[in-house]
Design a protein that fits this description.
Blueprint lengths: L36 E2 L5 E2 L4 H17 L1 H14 L4 E2 L9 H4 L7 H23 L10 H26 L17 H8 L6 H18 L13 H13 L6 H13 L9 H4 L16 E5 L10 H4 L17 E2 L1 H10 L2 H7 E4 L12 E4 L9 E5 H14 L4 H14 L7 H4 L2 H15 L6 H7 L3 H11 L21 H6 L10
Antiparallel strand pairs: 1-2, 3-5, 4-8, 6-7
Helix pairs in contact: 1-4, 2-4, 4-5, 5-7, 5-8, 7-8, 8-9, 8-14, 9-14, 14-15, 14-17, 15-17
Protein name: Starch-binding associating with outer membrane
Keywords: Cell outer membrane, Membrane, Signal
InterPro entries: SusD-like_N, SusD_RagB_dom, TPR-like_helical_dom_sf
Length: 505
């Protein structure tokens, strides 16, 4: 019997038909005598040799390039549309609920994301669980340790996205055994896992990252596509900023360690998302600010630009239908009121469209941070971590001046004035500046919703925005204490009786 990887919901069959179920629907890896099989003693072998391990590691890295829907495109839908930065853009039944707060467990976007996140966890687990048993002496101990560390960083990234979206989630760190009539009792919990608490999920993320720090590769200034020690430090800073494990001293620690790794703000903000002079390639890759990015080159471009606006290297391609993530009037007003011209022009662009869902077709705004098929998608960048350090100084140690210095640094890069002394000495006023700076600096980078959640500002901000933003679709349900987590897909609950729906859905 073939061995399959825990945990993909596409593989689950109901217990009533368990023994007649082939479990062959959408397997993660097809059978191969290279990547799996049985040795001479009849024992399961996940990886035959070093080449198979390296091939699987390439598969993990390829998720950053080839599977952008869940970790980037849908995350922007949730973080910017479900917050106040953007409208859905299209009026599709599965997309609009993120704008008008009508999300239900039947939403197919969330179902797709859950499945793909779980597939990613399974891919990471396969390497982590099996690499030490690979019978190939050319795979050294140091190589095994490094590859396992990289896979743990990848798993931590996936679990971090999941726990921020859904809260209590199954935390899977093993592979499931074969299902037979003799083993069903032993493997049931592997195929139908219970939910771990939010705190337990964060503890696993923390453990993965701390263990990975020992053996992951160092930062390479010329290649920001790898799961390095610096990626682990960035993730740890973000993890310790969140409520379940909140430790502002550690946020500061890991932000400072990233500075020691060589990270700093790029002097010119346009280097981060811009194009070269003749719009034939990205302006820069591997900036000193980028911590982890997915890179794209001619012949294997980034397709998600089709979803957000024009592809500047193929101007009229896929521009006949309404796009996702339409900048909101409230965000545009915030940029304008602040006089923030540089970040505004790098975040939002206007074209003539053939539709007018939210604005007149002849002057329609689009999200601009993914503007061509050759632009990198930056998963983590130093400005985010630096602003988290300012947040930690302000809310943790009440170091108002330290926080203000960082905010001035962020603002100074885009020619905004320093914070006046009357604000620098007022904790509440300075926090208002911090909230605005994170919103404008990180617009359309998948952070706004999670910021509002972390600050306990969801009800205050989101219930008010519908009245002051004339372009936003009418609110269906008010935001309340149950709105901080999204519904677990009902299709997943139907497959796994051990899962419970989040309150409020």
């Amino acid at each position: 019997m073939k061995r399959y990887i825990i945990y993909t919901t596409a593989m689950l069959c109901s217990l009533a038909v368990l023994f007649s179920c082939s479990l062959d629907k959408d397997p993660l890896d097809t059978y191969s005598d290279v990547t799996e099989g049985v040795n001479e003693e009849g024992e399961y072998v996940a990886f035959k040799d070093k080449a198979a391990v390296l091939s699987h590691m390439t598969t993990l890295y390829n998720q950053m390039r080839d599977r952008q829907e869940h970790w980037y495109m849908d995350l922007l839908l949730i973080a910017d549309v479900h917050a106040d930065n953007a409208y859905a853009g299209t009026t599709g039944a599965e997309v609009l609920p993120f704008e008008n707060n009508a999300i239900e467990g039947s939403n197919s976007v969330l179902s797709r994301d859950w499945n793909r996140y779980m597939e990613d966890v399974a891919r990471a687990n396969r390497l982590i669980v099996n690499i030490d048993d690979v019978a190939d002496n050319t795979l050294s101990t140091a190589e095994r340790q490094q590859l396992k560390a990289e896979a743990k960083i990848f798993r931590a990234m996936v679990l971090f996205d999941m726990v921020r979206l859904w809260g209590n989630i199954p935390v899977i760190t093993t592979e499931a055994g074969d299902i037979t009539s003799e083993t069903i009792g032993e493997v049931y919990d592997d195929y139908f896992p219970v939910q771990n608490t939010e705190e337990e999920a964060y503890q696993q993320i923390e453990q993965d990252l701390l263990e990975a720090l020992q053996f992951a590769p160092n930062n390479n200034a010329s290649d920001k596509t790898k799961f390095t020690k610096s990626v682990a430090r960035a993730l740890l800073a973000k993890v310790y900023a969140e409520k379940p494990l909140q430790d502002y001293n550690k946020v500061v620690q890991y932000a400072d360690e990233l500075a020691s790794d060589g990270f700093a703000l790029e002097e010119d903000f346009t280097n981060l998302f811009g194009m070269n002079g003749d719009n034939t390639d990205a302006k820069m890759r591997n900036t000193r600010e980028s911590i982890l990015e997915a890179q794209f080159f001619s012949g294997s471009g980034n397709w998600v630009t089709w979803m957000f606006g024009r592809d500047l290297i193929n101007y009229n391609s896929n521009f006949t239908w309404a796009k996702w993530i339409t900048p909101s009037r409230d965000l545009i007003k915030t940029f304008t009121d602040e006089g923030d011209q540089i970040r505004y022009e790098e975040s939002i662009v206007y074209y003539e469209a053939t539709w007018s869902n939210y604005y007149p077709a002849n002057n329609y705004p689009f999200m601009y941070k993914t503007r061509s098929a050759l632009n990198s998608i930056i998963k983590y960048r130093y400005a985010d971590i630096l602003l988290l350090k300012a947040e930690a100084l302000l809310l943790g140690s009440s170091d108002l001046e330290g926080a203000a210095v960082i905010l001035d640094q962020i603002r100074g890069r885009v020619n905004l004035p320093q914070i006046p002394s009357s604000v620098r000495s007022n904790r509440d006023a300075l926090f208002q500046v911090l909230m605005k700076e994170r919103r404008l600096e990180l617009a359309f980078e998948g952070e706004r919703w999670f910021d509002l959640v972390r600050w306990n500002k969801v009800e205050e901000v989101m219930n008010a925005v519908y009245a002051k933003d004339s372009g936003r679709r009418p609110q269906v349900y008010p935001f309340n204490e149950h709105s901080y987590k999204l519904p677990i897909p009902q299709s997943i609950i139907d497959q796994n009786p051990n899962l419970k729906q989040n309150l409020g859905y």
